[in-house]
Each structure stands twice: as C-alpha cells, then as structure tokens.
C-alpha cells in the first residue's frame, strides 16, 4: 500500500470536503492520507472520524507558512495535536489576518469596478481559512475570469496591481509552534526554494523532514533531496498537493505516493519527538 501525505480540503483552499477525499482515496486503493490544510485544522476531526469508518488512516496535519529575508517557507506539521491551545491561538490570528487581506484585495478590485460579494467569499470558505482561491472562485462566478488559473494570472498573482502581501511569521516561530503542537515539522516542496542552503538552515532551526516526493520535483531533484535528507538525518515525505478538480495546479489525488516504510519512519520520528516534548515539560 502507499500514502498521499499532502492534500488540501474545503477547510482551506481545496474544493473537496474531507469526506469526499477519504472516499476518493479509498476508491484509488490509497490507505493512508494526510489532509494538510493551509492555516486550518477545521477538517481534521471530520477526516479522522470518517476515515475510521471507511478504514482509511488519516494522519492529522496542518500547513503553515512563514516569511524571512531568506524567502517564503511552507511547513507541514504531521501528527499534529489539532486541539493544542498554542496552535489554536496562532490559527485564530492567521484567520483574522487572512480576512483583512482578502478585504483589502476586494477593495482594490472594487476601485477598478470589479465588484465581488464578500459574503459569498466567506460562505465559500465554509468557516475555514479564507485565501486567494476563494476570491478566484468569486471572480469566476461573476464572469471576470474563466478559471482559477485565469483569475490568478489576471488579478491575484504577486505581479498583479491588486496583490496584497501576506502577514507571515518568521520560520523559527512557525517551527516552534508545530513542535509545541506535538507534530513533526516538515519542509514542504523544497524545490520551490531554489537553494539547498535554505534547507540546511531550516534543519538547524528544528525542521525534521523534507517533502522529497512532490509533483514539481523532477527525478534529479527528488534524488538530490533524498540524499540531503539522509545527510541531515531527516525523514522523507511526499504527496500530490491535491486541491480538487479545477484547481490551479490540477494535480490528481495519488499522483505522488510514498511507501509504507516512509510513513512508518515518519511515525517513529513523531514518537521520538513526543518523548522529547514530554521530557521538556515534565522532566
């Protein structure tokens, strides 16, 4: 059996519910999945409960972003305690910042007579984390764009006049939050960083894994990141980064899978970190 450990649901910027994702995984013969929503754990409980009913292992996780002089980084915390108070506080702050950012983008669009329904955007997020993809869907509904990719290209990319920067934390803070939430912090899609030095820097700050297997990693990059993971003693993970039908990247669920052995190594790393966390707080 194999696993897809990078999936997004409707709790963030995916278009499928946690239940639909579990059903899709089951139909594809994938027995282990991880729904790693951006800045949200709203879908974790639903995925865990439904996965148990359908005999699909769901590893609870969350994807958090950071920003520093070295660039933007994404981290996935695997086996996260989604009820952790520190994590919940951080996510609440991020949700508020995302709402403010979305409102500013909508205001900029309005200035150019591109009128969006902000209430509809909020409804589309289903109480989760509001992101640019929700604005993209509203742009499509209102006839200003043909697809999510078209909406990003014309209105929502970093090069657009309507772009509003994210409000992000330093990588050290994000890694610390994930560790305190009893998860294994893994650097997502390192191929987008463009520098191996950044991986080594983040490993020194507490990152315990690399997403080696990723749709945009060619065979050479995949081999190189596997080698770096071995050199640094980091676990190797991977997944499709599936966002649902019609998404910007249009990746399919299960397009990238990792072995049961790698899942077990991730599980053992979580046990090791859990013991260290217990020792830190309780001696």
From TrEMBL:
Q: Report a single Gene Ontology molecular function.
A: 5'-3' RNA exonuclease activity
Q: State the Pfam families in the record.
A: PHP
Q: Domain Polymerase/histidinol phosphatase N-terminal spans what residues?
A: 3-68
Matching entries from SUPFAM superfamilies are given as: PHP domain-like (SSF89550)
Q: Which Gene3D superfamilies match?
A: 1.10.150.650, Metal-dependent hydrolases
Q: Which InterPro entries match?
A: PHP_dom (IPR004013), PHP_domain (IPR052018), Pol/His_phosphatase_N (IPR003141), Pol/histidinol_Pase-like (IPR016195)
Question: What is the name listed in the Swiss-Prot or TrEMBL entry for this protein?
Answer: 3',5'-nucleoside bisphosphate phosphatase
Q: Which organism is it from?
A: Candidatus Hakubella thermalkaliphila
Upper taxonomic lineage: Bacteria, Bacillati, Actinomycetota, Actinomycetota incertae sedis, Candidatus Hakubellales
């Amino acid at each position: 059996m194999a696993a897809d450990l990078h999936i997004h649901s409707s709790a963030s910027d995916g278009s499928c519910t946690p239940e639909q994702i579990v059903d899709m995984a089951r139909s594809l013969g994938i027995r282990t999945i991880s729904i790693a929503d951006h800045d949200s754990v709203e879908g974790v409980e639903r995925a865990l409960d439904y996965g148990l009913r359908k005999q699909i292992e769901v590893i609870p996780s969350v994807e958090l972003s950071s920003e520093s002089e070295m660039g933007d980084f994404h981290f996935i915390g695997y086996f996260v305690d989604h009820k952790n108070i520190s994590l919940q506080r951080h996510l609440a702050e991020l949700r508020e910042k995302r709402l403010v950012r979305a409102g500013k983008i909508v205001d900029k669009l309005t200035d150019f007579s591109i009128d969006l329904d902000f209430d509809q955007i909020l409804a589309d997020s289903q109480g989760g984390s509001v992101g640019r993809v929700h604005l993209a869907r509203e742009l499509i509904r209102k006839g200003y764009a043909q697809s999510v990719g078209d909406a990003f290209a014309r209105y929502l990319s970093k090069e657009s006049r309507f772009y509003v920067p994210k409000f992000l934390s330093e990588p050290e803070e994000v890694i610390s939050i994930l560790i305190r939430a009893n998860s294994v912090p893994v650097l997502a899609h390192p191929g987008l960083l463009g520098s191996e030095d950044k991986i080594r820097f983040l490993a020194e700050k507490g990152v315990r894994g690399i997403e080696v297997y990723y749709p945009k990693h060619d065979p050479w990059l995949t081999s190189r990141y596997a080698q770096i993971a071995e050199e640094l003693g980091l676990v190797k993970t991977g997944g499709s980064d599936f966002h649902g039908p019609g998404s910007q990247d249009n990746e399919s669920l299960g397009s990238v899978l990792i072995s049961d052995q790698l899942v077990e190594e991730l599980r053992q790393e979580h046990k090791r970190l859990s013991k260290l966390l217990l020792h830190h707080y309780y001696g």
